Amino acid sequence: MAYQPIEPDDRLESGPEGLEFKSFLGEDVGAQGNSSAQNPAVSTGYYGEQPATSSSGFWTIEYYQKYFDVDTKMVLTRCYTTLLPTSSSYLTTHLTPSVDLYGPFWTLTTLIFSLFVFSSLASSISSYLSSAPITYDFQLLSIAVTLVYTYGLGIPIILWVVLRYLGVGEWSPVEAVAVFGYGQFVWIPVSILCVIPVPILRWSLVGVAFLFSGYFLVANIYPILASAEQKATRLLVIILVILHAALALTFKVLFFSYYVVEAIGGKDPLGGEGPGAVSSAVSTATATLM
């Protein structure tokens, strides 16, 4: 078997002038390949950057995740700053740009727990000092849930709907709920202090809580009402003050009207005849408010 020698081709060894490779894919593909080589994360693979998708709808969990992205320090700061007289710009100072629903929800839930637990404790103390049998009214828990969630969640949503109908779009429903929710924080320490069975002290504490929370709500809601073209919209603040006063009176009458047989610190102007009793006129007024 004979082998034929192969002569080298001078054109293959002549370099670029002899043999050239030309791309027919265009310059864009080449630029994309170079950028992918420089940055491996930018690719069409599973680990690369995925194309942006449309925002989630309000019926999905992903839509509400951003409203619960807060830590304990931020929530506590937003709670105690509602007690400061300089909290009139609460929306722009503390809630912008990361308004949340976590703090308002747990503020209202803690208030419900405080109202029921400490009113039951006040009833137990009064019954013990009066040598009366200790009873627990679990119906107060359902009343507290209905009252607090209706005022802290329902009223701001209704107010937002009314303002939208009147052409006021200065705030969102989440901001409305946040203002009302954080604004009820003052009632939590007041419900603890109202365990003391002294009528004048309880009325003083309820009055202080009404003034602090009422001022906070008016200072942050009135600028929104004032931005409306209809000047009559500002009158809504009067309705809010009346509702807030009714809430404070209901808290006092339903949850903190427990006294010993011999009342300590003077007679309660709206108190009843015994531990846990309230006058029929106050009960009728409370039922009307609810």
Q: Topology, pairings included?
A:
Layout: H1 27-38, H2 61-65, H3 72-80, H4 90-95, H5 102-129, H6 139-165, H7 173-183, H8 187-193, H9 199-226, H10 236-255, H11 280-289
Helix pairs in contact: 5-6, 5-7, 5-8, 6-7, 9-10, 10-11
Can you describe what's shown?
The structure is a single chain. With 290 residues, the chain is mainly α. Helix content is 56%, strand content 0%. It contains eleven helices and no strands. α10 packs across α11. The C terminus is likely disordered.
Note the gap between the termini: 112 Å
Number of DSSP-assigned strands: 0
Secondary-structure element order, as H and E? Answer: HHHHHHHHHHH
Number of helices: 11
Strand content: under 5%
Flag low-confidence runs: 39-54, 272-290
Helical content, roughly?
55-70%
Largest sheet: none
Q: Tell me, what's the shape?
A: globular
Q: Averaging pLDDT over every residue, what do you get?
A: 76
Radius of gyration: 34 Å
Question: What structural class should be given to the helix and strand makeup?
Answer: mainly alpha
Q: Assembly state here?
A: single chain
Q: Can you summarize this structure?
A:
It is built from eleven helices and no strands. The protein is mainly α and 290 residues long.
